[in-house]
Amino acid sequence: MTNAVIIKRLAVLEREVQTIKSQMRRVAIVPAKDAKKLSPGLRIALREIKEGKEIGPFNSVEEFMAGVK
Question: What's the number of domains the chain is made of?
C-alpha cells in the first residue's frame, strides 16, 4: 500500500471520527444505574469520554502517529 493510499484512507477515517464525535456530544452519557447492562469495555470508553480523554481528529499522519505513541 502506498503512502498516498494510506493518507486518503486516514482522511476518510478522520472525517468519520469527527462525525461520530459530533453525534456523541448530542447524546447524554448513560446514567450509572444503567451501566450494568453495558460491556466492560464500553463502560470504560464512556467514562473516558466523560473525563475528556479523547484523541483526534488529526490534521496529518504525523499528528496521528504522535498521538498513538
Answer: 1
Q: What is the pLDDT of residue 24?
A: 73
Burial 51-68 (b: 16+ CB within 10 A, else e): eeeeeebbeeeeebeeee
> How many of the other CB atoms lie within 10 Å of CB of 14?
17
Task: Report if pTM > 0.85.
Answer: no
Mapping DSSP to helix (H, G, I), strand (E, B) and coil, where does residue 2 land? Answer: coil
Residue type present at position 2: T
Q: How far apart are CA 33 and CA 16, in angstroms?
A: 30
Q: What's the start-to-end Cα distance of the chain, in Å?
A: 22
The Cα–Cα gap between 49 and 55 comes to 10
**pLDDT score at 26:** 66
